[in-house]
Amino acid sequence: MTDDEDKSTHEPDRGEKKAGRHTILAVGFASFFGGVSQDIVIPILPLYLTQILGLDKAVIGVAEGLVTAASSGFKIIAGRLSDRFQRQKPIVAAGYALSMVGRAGLAFVHTPLAVFGLRFTDGVGKGVKDPPKDVLVANAADSTTRGRGFGIARMLDTFGSALGPLVLSGLLFIFVQNHVAPGDYYRWLLVLSALVLLITIAIAQFGIKEKEKFARDRLAPRAPLARSFYLFTAIAGVFAIANSSDAFLVLRAQNLGLGIIAIPLAYAVLNVIYGALALPAGILSDKVGRIPLITIGWTVYAVCYLGFALANSAWQVWPLFALYGVFYAVTEGVSRALIADTVGQEARGRAYGVYNMVVGLAALPAGLIAGLL
Questions:
Q1: What CATH number has the domain bearing residue 319?
Q2: 94 falls in which pLDDT band (50, 70, 90)?
Q3: Are 204 and 89 in contact (CB under 8 A)?
Q4: pLDDT for 206-229, tens place per residue?
Q5: Using CA atoms, how far apart are residues 244 and 370, in angstroms rounded to an integer?
Q6: Which one of 136, 177, 271, 301 is at 20 to 30 Å from 185 when CA atoms are compared?
Q7: Is residue 69, in this structure, part of any structural domain at all?
Q8: Is residue 1 part of a domain?
């Protein structure tokens, strides 16, 4: 179903536009604090798992791939629940709560099975919250401003992800200066990252304004998703097989000689570039179309990974992480806007669930292959 056929599309009045902007900002700020939490964890997690818990790279590859792939089933379930009940807030809040449990729990376990279980819980939380968040943003904007809307949401999300590593670097500096044992400060950081999600849950529950329910015949068969949606999703799935977890870029940076305090700063560079370009990329996609931006992003990704493969010095990590931020900026929000352009409001939860499921399932072989390389 296209926007022309979308029964929910009409010329919004001033009140609807204001409510839409409020929703986009609320989703963005919920994602901001979610990004702070996530990116306190991401730069240290592979180091914690290898250095403190003693897991090898192959195990990490399976764990990270399994987390993403297993969460995919919950993405499609969450998307269908979003369509069925036309409610998103409770699903988003529940997802963040699961991630909070998964991150805090890592501070208190020691076995691979426990790590798998908690990473699975965190991944399920991510799977549960993502489709309804995308639906909220997609429904809050029309086709002429949808790229901008997703750009705002991704910008705030990513600036949170940029702040997370800066907070992490500051705390690591304090811990190291005070001779705190790595095992102890890694665990404190995991607990802190979980507590930050309390802010996100509050914003999701009390700050987001859901769009009014629309009338529909519950006995009518579900409308099929557009062929163009399935085509794009299939291409994205094939591309995702070539994509490894970001955890391996962290390990690659360490192998090239980047220090423990510098690694979060490099990750912050990635997110600053991503956040700064997400909104301009979204606005540009409203003007020139989604496909040209996505094509540019995939090309940048290929160049970036080639650079990581050929790098032989620590200083090369910085421009490569910056280039990786460009890839995210011109693909993440724009891809979601493209999906909303091709699917009507009544099926967007299902569409985002299917898209995220396909991309997530592709992460399992991607993570395993990267871990064995």
A1: 1.20.1250.20
A2: very high
A3: yes
A4: 888 887 665 555 545 566 788 889
A5: 6
A6: 271
A7: yes
A8: no
Six-digit token string for 168: 């992490």
Distance (Å, rounded) from C-alpha 123 to C-alpha 98? 9
**What number of other Cβ atoms are within 10 A of residue 150's Cβ?**
32
Domain ranges, residue 70: 14-211+224-372
Q: How many domains does the chain have?
A: 1
Domain-embedded: residue 2: no
Coil, helix or strand for 245? coil
In a domain, 30, yes or no: yes
Q: How many residues does the chain have?
A: 373
User: What digits encode the pLDDT tens for the residues 341-359?
Assistant: 998 888 899 999 899 888 8
Instruction: Give the number of other Cβ atoms within 10 Å of residue 349's Cβ.
Output: 30
Q: Can you say how many angstroms the Cα of residue 245 is from the centroid of all Cα atoms in its chain? A: 12
201 with 207: CB under 8 angstroms?
A: no
Report the candidate in 143, 166, 118 with the shortest Cα–Cα distance to residue 275: 166
Q: What are phi and psi of 179, to 5 degrees?
A: 55, 40
> DSSP 3-state assignment of 356?
helix
- Spell out the residues 6+ positions from residue 14 whose beta carbon is closer than 8 angstroms to its own: none
Most distant pair of Cα atoms in the chain: their distance:
65
Amino acid at 212: E
Q: What are the φ/ψ torsions at residue 217 (nearest 5 degrees)?
A: -85, 110
What is the pTM for the complete model shown? 0.81
Residue 27 has pLDDT above 50, yes or no: yes
Handedness of CA 264, 92, 77, 119 (dihedral sign): positive
State the Cα–Cα distance between residues 218 and 196, nearest whole angstrom: 39
